Amino acid sequence: MRPVTKGYCRLESLIDGTLDLEAIAWANDAIDVAAENAIKAERMRR
Prior knowledge:
Elements: H1 2-5, H2 11-15, H3 21-45
């Protein structure tokens, strides 16, 4: 559900099969990278 809650895709795309598991995995990876980058950027600001 993280891709949906973060706005990467719509819930309907998950339900109707428009997106496959690979696409969801890519989106989850992108969310993880964005979170890591935000943490690193915050640390650098200090």
